[in-house]
Amino acid sequence: LCAAVPLKDMKLLDVKLGQLPTWLAMRDFTPGGILGALRRGHDRYYNKYINVKKGGLGGISMVLAGYVLVSYIWSYSHLKHDRHRKYH
Amino acid sequence: VLHTRRPLHTTQQRLAPLPPLPEKGGEVRYGLVPEEFFQFLYPKTGVTGPYMLGTGLLLYFLSKEIYVINHETVAAVCILSVIIYGIKKYGSDVAAFADKLNEEKVAKALAVKNEAIKDLETAVEQEKKEQWRVEGRSYLFDAKRNNIAMLLETNYRERLLTVYNEVKKRLDYQVAMQNLKRQKEQDHMIQWVEKNVVQSITPQQQKDSIAKCILDLKALSKSAQAAV
């Protein structure tokens, strides 16, 4: 069952921690590769949560939550100045 | 290697019919965290593991002020409470409405399909009926043959009648000719006899006949007078 799958074809969750840098280096970083990876990720999410007969709230709420998180991270350098204490 | 839930393209490529959509999407707890995360942590930490992780992370962010509490936090709390209240109150209604729309779409497609099936079935029945009708060809041809025979017979009899009439006309003509000839001969002979008789009456004979007539008349008048 665990045949000799070449490293670059293995899924991320099957990659051992030590092999992570090599695995990351072997990924396809050309623009076409990046686009393909984005499309694959989008299709996976879409087919799992949105393209179903009875979709629920979770499908879009997760996207919105992710958007909120990313915008918070991007504006953290401005929010740093609103901290109540200087030393934590 | 595709990361998909359902096996795709396992057999030869088919464009139709597509496999049906899955009934429900992936499970999401509290609308934010997919169920797979809870299952991932279950073997190691049991049921409360992810909640403890969430609480710990929250307290860490608050204490280290990675998440700062400012006016935006108040705004976010108000907005979120309104949103959650709205969802809790009207969620099921909206879901039912969306389901109804979906249902109508599917019902329309189904209606089209059933319509097409019905049309094809009626077409098949009509085709069978036509095939049954073809079996009656022999009767049709018999009737046609009878018709033609009757036409021929009628035509033949008409022509017989024509022939008969023509022949009769010719024979009548001959008969009429003979009658006419005989009549003309008769008339001519009568005329000739009369002419000769009138010629043969000499004037002397005429005076004698007139005298005789007068005598006869006198005798008659005498007898008549006697009767009166």
Automatic annotation (TrEMBL), chain A:
Protein name per the record: ATP synthase F(0) complex subunit f, mitochondrial
Function of the molecule: Subunit f, of the mitochondrial membrane ATP synthase complex (F(1)F(0) ATP synthase or Complex V) that produces ATP from ADP in the presence of a proton gradient across the membrane which is generated by electron transport complexes of the respiratory chain. ATP synthase complex consist of a soluble F(1) head domain - the catalytic core - and a membrane F(1) domain - the membrane proton channel. These two domains are linked by a central stalk rotating inside the F(1) region and a stationary peripheral stalk.
Any one GO molecular-function label of the UniProt entry: proton-transporting ATP synthase activity, rotational mechanism
Subunit structure: Component of the ATP synthase complex composed at least of ATP5F1A/subunit alpha, ATP5F1B/subunit beta, ATP5MC1/subunit c (homooctomer), MT-ATP6/subunit a, MT-ATP8/subunit 8, ATP5ME/subunit e, ATP5MF/subunit f, ATP5MG/subunit g, ATP5MK/subunit k, ATP5MJ/subunit j, ATP5F1C/subunit gamma, ATP5F1D/subunit delta, ATP5F1E/subunit epsilon, ATP5PF/subunit F6, ATP5PB/subunit b, ATP5PD/subunit d, ATP5PO/subunit OSCP.
Similarity comment text for this entry: Belongs to the ATPase F chain family.
Recorded name of the encoding gene: Atp5j2_0
Residue intervals passing through the bilayer: 56-76
Single GO BP term: proton motive force-driven mitochondrial ATP synthesis
Its membrane topology: Single-pass membrane protein
Domain of life: Eukaryota
One cellular component (GO) term of this entry: proton-transporting ATP synthase complex
Keyword annotations from UniProtKB, A to Z: Acetylation, ATP synthesis, CF(0), Hydrogen ion transport, Ion transport, Membrane, Mitochondrion, Mitochondrion inner membrane, Phosphoprotein, Transmembrane, Transmembrane helix, Transport
Record's subcellular location: Mitochondrion inner membrane
From TrEMBL, chain B:
MF GO annotations: proton-transporting ATP synthase activity, rotational mechanism
Annotated GO CC locations: mitochondrial inner membrane; proton-transporting ATP synthase complex
Main location as per UniProt: mitochondrion
Top-rank taxon: Eukaryota
Pfam families according to UniProt: Mt_ATP-synt_B (PF05405)
Localization per record: Mitochondrion; Mitochondrion inner membrane
Keyword line: CF(0), Hydrogen ion transport, Ion transport, Membrane, Mitochondrion, Mitochondrion inner membrane, Transport
Keyword Ion transport set for record: yes
Residues spanning the signal sequence: none
InterPro entries: ATP_synth_Bsub_B/MI25, ATP_synth_F0_suB
Residue segments, region Disordered: 1-22
The UniProt record lists the keyword Cell inner membrane: no
Family the entry assigns: Belongs to the eukaryotic ATPase B chain family.
Oligomeric form and interacting partners: F-type ATPases have 2 components, CF(1) - the catalytic core - and CF(0) - the membrane proton channel. CF(1) and CF(0) have multiple subunits.
Function: Subunit b, of the mitochondrial membrane ATP synthase complex (F(1)F(0) ATP synthase or Complex V) that produces ATP from ADP in the presence of a proton gradient across the membrane which is generated by electron transport complexes of the respiratory chain. ATP synthase complex consist of a soluble F(1) head domain - the catalytic core - and a membrane F(1) domain - the membrane proton channel. These two domains are linked by a central stalk rotating inside the F(1) region and a stationary peripheral stalk.
Name assigned to this protein: ATP synthase subunit b
Taxonomic source organism: Ciconia maguari
Lineage, top ranks: Eukaryota, Metazoa, Chordata, Craniata, Vertebrata
Gene: Atp5f1
